[in-house]
Design a protein that fits this description.
This protein is of the alpha/beta class. The protein has a single domain, classed as Rossmann fold (3-Layer(aba) Sandwich). The protein contains five helices and seven strands, in the order βαβββαβαβααβ. The strands form two sheets. The chain has a five-stranded parallel β-sheet with strand order 5-2-1-6-7, with helices on both faces. It holds the Pfam family Usp. This is Universal stress protein UspA. It comes from Pseudarthrobacter sulfonivorans.
Length: about 140
């Protein structure tokens, strides 16, 4: 399988472990990896004083998370990254569709106990994605 594998990250240890599984899977099947971090609002804040001001937005924060993880995974495969607007599951699915990805990789965080009842990103992606979904075991990551 060549093509693109999409993985979602949020800065957590479980997301990092899922991203590492995605990298290993991409290397094994000859695919490239696209790291995505979701943001849900267009909130921005301005910091600084005088003429030195910095505008920081949720999109910037999400892109920073995706870039940091992507850089840590780079090596024998092509790794790209982006920030995507929306709730995590929706953003991952939209990015996978936009890129015509072959697979989405997510961690299994919140798939046990009360989180399973309330829902999880993995559960939502598994039920709504138009491509294959791989759920990485990340229980011992955090």
């Amino acid at each position: 399988m060549s093509g693109i594998i999409v993985v979602g990250v949020d800065g957590s240890g479980t997301a990092k472990k899922a991203a590492e599984s995605a990298r290993d899977l991409a290397a094994a099947v000859g695919a490239s990896l696209h790291v995505v971090s979701a943001f849900d609002s267009d909130r921005t804040e301005i910091f600084g004083s005088g003429s030195d001001q910095w505008i920081v937005s949720d999109a910037d924060g999400a892109e920073h998370v995706a870039k940091t993880v992507a850089e840590s995974l780079a090596g024998s495969i092509k790794v790209t990254y982006s920030a995507a607007r929306g709730k995590p599951a929706e953003a991952l699915i939209k990015e996978a569709e936009r890129l015509d990805a072959k697979m989405i990789v997510v961690g299994n965080r919140r798939m046990r106990g009360i989180g399973r009842v309330l829902g999880s990103v993995a559960n939502s992606v598994a039920h709504n994605a138009t491509c294959d979904v791989y759920i990485a075991n990340t229980y011992d990551a955090d």
